[in-house]
Amino acid sequence: MHEPDLAIEAGLQYDSAGRLRHLLTLAGMAPERMRALLDRADALRNASRGGTRPLDLLAGRTVINLFFEPSTRTRTSFDLAAQRLGAQVINFDIASSSTVKGETLLDTVHTLEAMHCDAFVVRHKESGTPGFIARHLHSRAAVLNAGDGNRAHPTQGLLDVLTLRRHRPDFSELRIVICGDIRHSRVARSDIHALRTLGVADLRLCAPPQLLPATDEFPGCRIFHNFDEAIAGADVAIMLRLQKERMEHAEIPSEAGYFERYGLSEQRLRRAAAGCLVMHPGPINRGMEIAAGVADGQHSLILEQVANGVFVRMAVLAELLAPDAVPSMTA
Ligand code: NCD
């Protein structure tokens, strides 16, 4: 129903002057623009003293979180990001809204627009929904994709590369493995776009055969079914959850044995390069795709990813709603 067409979305994403109008996908984003967003996130981290000082860049603006799927990190960090920039935030509660009375998605959006808002942050199980909303808006509101189906999660891709570049600023020599349910992962797709755009040449994708996308979807990535081979010498391991809520019955791997073949254990991590960084977008399933000791280990960046999510979302909101504003503190 939502015509998930990347070309159309890429056309929607920028205005005629080339400015970011919506954030729907990282596909096709120029490296300079991506780096500028990351620099902006770092600048806002400094200006807000790590998020402890409120800023007023978005004073008087209204951001509506429209989450049709569960979320802990993404929704909270969008909420905090907008509030720390001085915006008013509405966390629209789908379960107690007129959606349950049969109101359509667009009628809901147009209703909220009639009350005036500056941005919609949208998460939906159907790929293409944020673009669909962006195409049918009545106002100049911006749409930010907070995860659509298995397709894109652009702010997660940005926060992952922001986190990584703080530890490994030169991406060109990095060997990175992404392991897990790649087929159903919007995080994997946005990470792949971000990492490739910023110059990662050795990118390895590892999954059981039924959880890999079509072989031609990611040109330039090396495909593995054997995690011991894929992780050999890697500098970074990005682990993914089994997203059973998106799987067809035949794709669900047996849980017994999954960790043994595809889980990141302490022992398997020793096959990677010394100091291999461990990443995961969360939520993690301990003992399923990652051992608890690895998730909590000294090379785990998992909670840093969460922290950086707030700064990336501040940067994207500022870029969309106040592109020329310079941050100043309100207190
Ligand atoms: C992910 C998502 O919802 O796409 N989580 C997140 O946003 N950090 C990944 C997942 O649910 O496995």
Structural write-up:
With 331 residues, this protein is α/β, with parallel strands linked by helices. The chain has two domains: 6-153 and 307-321, 3-Layer(aba) Sandwich (Rossmann fold); 168-300, Aspartate/ornithine carbamoyltransferase (Rossmann fold), CATH 3.40.50. It contains twelve helices and nine strands. It has helices spanning 6-13, 31-47, 73-84, 105-114, 129-135, 154-167, 186-197, 227-230, 258-262, 266-269, 292-295, 302-321; strands at residues 62-67, 88-92, 119-124, 142-148, 175-179, 202-206, 222-224, 236-239, 277-279. It has a five-stranded parallel beta sheet with strand order 7-6-5-8-9. The protein has a four-stranded parallel beta sheet with strand order 2-1-3-4, with helices on both faces. Helix 7 links the parallel strand 5 (175-179) and strand 6. Helix 2 (31-47) packs across helix 12 (302-321). It starts with 5 loop residues before the first helix and ends in a 10-residue tail after the last helix. The protein binds N-carbamoyl-L-aspartate. N-carbamoyl-L-aspartate (NCD) binds next to helix 3 and helix 7. N-carbamoyl-L-aspartate binds at residues 73-74, 147, 153, 156, 186-187, 241, 243, 281-282.
Oligomer: single chain
Q: Are any ligands bound, and if so which?
A: N-carbamoyl-L-aspartate
Largest sheet: 5 strands, parallel
Distance between the termini: 47 Å
CATH class of the largest domain: Alpha Beta
Based on CA atoms alone, the radius of gyration comes out at: 20 Å
Unreliable spans are none
In helices, the fraction of residues equals 25-40%
Number of domains: 2
List the total number of helices. 12
Residue share in β-strands: 5-15%
What is the residue-mean pLDDT, rounded to a whole number?
94
Coarse morphology: globular
